């Protein structure tokens, strides 16, 4: 089995590379205007601090090429500004806000291919989704 | 493989809700259940789960490669003829897959047996990839497990790797849309989590409900702001999309899909008899036949009857000595049934346990365990964490 299949106990849950962290946070900020990860302020702060650590070689000499991605909760997306424990901004998020500078290098807009530019007007909706509404179970997953 | 009773963390509900895992309890009953965990040896994981999962994936891909050039197979799978070219083209184009989950019967002795393949719309991904890992970290710290315990779980990392691969392909898109039944907590949460993994891979995303997808007069699918959808992850079954109003525009649309259209072949219980026919007596397969196949009689009067299209155990019947000893209600079955030999799930006290073995970005990468008092695993079957302890 590859090492990557069995996770190392040396790898923390919320560690990740600084670049990944910035890009992720930038995405959350720019696209959804959501400004906080879901985990607690303390955890967020420690993850920011430990981000660099995760990119350094481990004691056994191995190095995670992509650093360690963060494992977030649903709340990160479901509940804007929900910190997991409280609502609103806290000082502990200051390091994250400073990283918004990275947004300039991380554009989230996109230009559709010419073949996909829609004709103006005449867009129909609700052509998908009826089976879920008619299903005896709402979930479409399995 | 052992079931080890243990103390649950007093604060697990708060921890679950803090990360948005709001469906930890369903209809007042536990969905997440950490009053016990399943312990595996590394050998069991490597030899009995991981390697067979890779082999099953390879067999499934071989089946697809044959099916797209064999209309008899597409017919028996009840894939509508008007979508044959759409499905085949996606395979021949090499449209990538992000993930899937094989459901296995495994008791620690003998080979794991494939019960079914959730190839198109697998859920329970967040609790597998994230919350059970959080449990392990706490469990080690609180001496619930040995402090050198590990977990077969790189699903989170493989999903991110998968998004990176998909974005870098020539057919990849600069922007990803994710759609599904967002008003369902489980589906909405699953999509939110997958969106997060995509963003961590550097992919820009937009989330929308299935019924918010628009169609232009030219047959281009657009989002709620009329922006064209280049690449759409849909937590929504292909067979539903095929029969809905916009299904008629699928083939002519430039949108690329995840899971890809060729997964319509694999998310069908009809693959069970097809796999058995292609790989007879394979140790990880169970004998299976289409119900109208005379060979189905070889199973005798004890078998599991499954609709071609079914999710979460719906309309599945366990027949023993000609009697239906367990069945789950549901709306499926119109397209026909298969019969599969019985591989009764291992029972620990009164609990039946089923293994979910995950594959993402082409590699086996994680495990989930679901428990139920019934031998048929359902939507409400409890999720228990696991650890590698030997």
Question: In words, what does this structure look like?
Answer:
- The complex is a heterodimer of chains A (142) and B (390).
- Chain A is mainly alpha-helical and 142 residues long.
- Chain A has helices at 18-32, 41-54, 75-78, 94-98, 130-134.
- Chain A starts with 17 loop residues before the first helix and ends in an 8-residue tail after the last helix.
- Mean pLDDT of chain A is 43; it is low at 1-6, 8-59, 61-69 and 74-114.
- In chain B, strands 5, 6, 18, 19, 20 and 21 form a 6-stranded antiparallel β-sheet that branches. Chain B has a 5-stranded antiparallel β-sheet with strand order 13-17-14-15-16.
- The N and C termini of chain B lie close together (10 Å).
- Chain B has 10 helices and 22 strands.
- With 390 residues, chain B is of the alpha+beta class.
- Helices cover 29% and strands 25% of the residues of chain B.
- In chain B, α6 crosses α7.
- The chains are: A mainly alpha (142), B alpha+beta (390).
- The interface between A and B is large, with 65 and 99 residues.
